[in-house]
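CO-FOLDING WORKSHEET

Operator: S.A.
Ligand of interest: flavin-adenine dinucleotide
Run index: 464
Mode: holo prediction, single chain
Checklist:
[x] sequence pasted
[x] SMILES validated
[ ] output reviewed
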Amino acid sequence: MFQSEVTRREWLKSLGLGVGAAAFTSVGLTNREAQADFVHKTDKTTGKLLDGSQAAPCTLQVDGSIVRPSVSLPKISETDVLVVGAGPAGCCAAIAAARLGVKVTLVERYGHFGGLATGGLVLHVLGHWTKQDGKSVQVVQGIGEEMMQRLEAMPYGIINREFARNPTLDAEAYKYLLVEMVTEANIEVLLHSWCCDAIMADAPDPKTGNPIVRGAVVQTKLGPQAIIARQVVDTTGDGDVFYAAGAIHTQREYDIGLVSRIANLDRVNPPAGTKPPRYLGDASPVPGVRWVNMAGPSLDGCDVRVLSELELKHRKQIWKQVEEVRSTPGYENVYLMETAPQIGVRITRVIEGVETLTLENARAGKEYDDCVAIGGAWSGDHIGWQIPYGALLPKNIENLVTAGRSISAEPFMSDLVRVYPNCWASGHAAGVAAALAVKSDVTARDVDIPEVRKNLLAQKAYLG
Ligand SMILES: Cc1cc2nc3c(=O)[nH]c(=O)nc-3n(C[C@H](O)[C@H](O)[C@H](O)COP(=O)(O)OP(=O)(O)OC[C@H]3O[C@@H](n4cnc5c(N)ncnc54)[C@H](O)[C@@H]3O)c2cc1C
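OUTPUT RECEIVED:
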């Protein structure tokens, strides 16, 4: 930590501690030990954990199989609506539910909100404009629109916020905004909590015979911990909760890339006639900084071997791309500002819902009685398409809805569903539905759809 002993002494001196470094260090350590002991609630003599959790490692059996023992888990929270995954869909779901006055817990495996839009550096806000009767209409509104308006009020928050145009946001501004909006809504937040299992009721639903979700287990530094909930919203993008709960789904493979940002583009000075290099990406709200998208191969985005291999491969490729940019006369000062901390997994698990979005229905402008959102296409030159609540609802599991890129859709429609304004809209709908199910004490399947639509409209969502 310290460059040299002199620097360290100077630092201690500046704290008014003179050269009593040894005393300071030992006091500091003692305090830290006491703090750690308090957090872990260990018995001082036996060293056993006192918070209900037990060390229960797996055993390697003589036949080579690995067996996990059955243990009871500590309960970290009990909530009305548990939202797992704090990406664009999850944040909208959590905020929408909390604004209806229920207790909401938002769980996220990383240390920040925003999912691929922030950690994945995906900055281009596509798919919220459509063409209806020759006129451009913004179909994603509600909480998504509120986010864009608030970004607009922030320095370097968003650019190109114009009629019928796809804007570009800044990842750090969006991370900050989400902290503001989530805390304003009084949401219980559990970061660094990786959902690794679903918690099911001990008996199926008497009406449908389907298993009922009652919460989720998160893997934390203190071991696995349980969250009990009345309704669960799976916004992990990869359907980690519905997968663990045994929901019928399909597994897809689609372009896994890695996005990066390059900087100093405001300092390029190419001689006249120089052909601009490849890999310059697109403008971002920060002057001189551009974001560079990547397609990548279509492989299984839930397989850690695949993900590990691609992380290494993509990083090498990005470095070479930037070297190529730098080797162009006038572009020598361009540098790689960052590679996305989160690999760009586009589509993996997709739920088999009560309704499935199809291209044919989208093109025909099919109308659903349970329409809870309208989606748009990338370019804004197409008609909007309705998202029915049934596309969020698993066929064979109760008290669980999904939103975002994993909702029920044919492959082509999944490609439209996944752009993040459409994830804002389905997340908004999922949050409202889950909150109303809690308030009227019904399953997510039995929630009153006209009431969901009424509340969505009250929260300024666009339903056509
Ligand atoms: C390379 C790339 C480029 C793209 N380009 C564009 C574009 O230009 N414009 C556009 O609109 N869209 C684009 N997209 C699509 C868009 O970014 C995503 O589809 C969208 O962010 C999905 O939102 P989501 O909330 O469903 O999921 P995600 O953004 O994936 O968020 C899921 C969240 O859940 C968390 N999570 C996952 N598993 C767990 C777990 N087990 N426990 C706890 N937390 C968990 C994740 O950390 C994440 O925060 C692109 C996607 C990629 C990969």
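REVIEW:
The chain is about 30% helix and 20% strand.
The first helix runs from residue 5 to 14.
[x] output reviewed
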